[in-house]
Amino acid sequence: MSATNFWGPKKRKGENRQPEDRTITGRLRSRIDRYRELGRARRARIEDKLREKESPAVAPIFEVIPGTARGILAAQDFDDLERRIGYTIKRRAYFLQALTHRSYLQFAQYPTLKSNERLEFLGDSILNLVIAEYLYGEFESLPEGDLTKLRSRLVSGSALVQHAKDINLEQFLLLSTSADAALKRGSATLLADAYEALIAAIYLDGGMTAARDFIYRNIITHARRDELMLSDKNYKSMLLEFVQSKKLTSPKYLTVSEEGPNHERTFSVDVMVSGLRHGSGNGRSKKEAEQNAAREALGMLGVLPKIVLQNEDSSNDL
Question: Is residue 186 part of a domain?
Fold first, then answer.
């Protein structure tokens, strides 16, 4: 094969062609230049993509649908919610449902969006279980009736409303304008319901451990334990729990005196712990006198702060 046939067809007469470097070196140089051009184009595309990733993303803004109080939750809302509840959300759908009141669905037509009523049912059960578990282990000497009272106090609607307000949950709720107006007027039921639904969303998204951690952080705290016991006013139960925790004998209440006519009788009672008198109390019934004696004993034992006793004495004098 001739060199002419190897490099291509023979140049015809009359054709005006630019001279080409038909050597092997020239062909290699052309190929290298081509690869360099392709490389530069590829680097330019990569740099463009990197700049797009580094540039701040603009969160979509959802318009407020007529009849509703706010637009559906956007990415920024979920970021704010995570900071409020101290939990990293994996599946936003659970939380979107937890924050959706049934009134919102009358106006917002999202096919996959559901109200939080089913999640509320689940969250109520989870909350009661965790609270019961805590009280059973924390107050070992209290009978079933007292434990039920304490649980009711912890999971009451007013308590849940306050916990919901602590994390500004109302700003995330999807409500109709009428439901939102009712909330602002003080109707707190839907706020407490949403809080229970939120607990269920955390449970479904992160499991029982995540739900329990949230309840302990936001409802069960050591600071509120004393408030819980003080609000119970069952000083006899408090004293019994304390002495049993110290491996002491159970308190004994001795009636010291009864004075006055039958319709205005006054009782005086001493409370004995391990054979020593730790408190005295008066009352119009033995039960009231025993409670006051137990209250004084709790003060002497350092269980109740003196400032609490002073405040109660002042309120009783009014």
Answer: yes
Which one of 124, 180, 205, 290 is the catalytic residue?
A: 124
Per-residue pLDDT tens digits for 202-229: 999 999 999 999 999 999 875 455 556 5
User: Residue 182: left if φ>0, alpha if ψ -120 to 50, beta else—which one?
Assistant: alpha
| Residue 91 burial class via C-beta count within 10 angstroms: exposed 0-12, middle 13-18, buried 19 and up | exposed
Classify residue 32: in a domain, yes or no.
Answer: no
Q: Which of 196, 241, 270, 296 is catalytic?
A: 196
Reply yes or no on whether 21 is catalytic: no
Q: What is the dihedral of CA 207, 59, 167, 83, to 10 degrees?
A: 60
Report how far Cα 156 is from the mean position of its chain's Cα atoms.
Answer: 16
**Among 199, 192, 180, which residue's Cα sits nearest to residue 71?**
180
- Please tell me whether residues 86 and 208 are part of one structural domain: yes
User: For 253-267, what is each residue's pLDDT tens digit?
Assistant: 999 999 888 778 899
pLDDT computed for residue 260 by the predictor: 86
Beta bridge partners of 156: none
pLDDT tens-digit readout, 226-250 = 556 555 567 888 888 888 888 888 8
What domain range includes position 249? Answer: 235-309
Residue 259 annotated as catalytic: no
Residue 14 lies in a domain: no
Q: What 3-state class would DSSP assign to 131?
A: helix
For residues 18 and 14, what is the distance between their CA atoms, to the nearest angstrom? Answer: 13
Q: Within this chain, do residues 239 and 173 fall inside the same structural domain, yes or no?
A: no
DSSP strand pairing (276-283 vs 252-259): unpaired
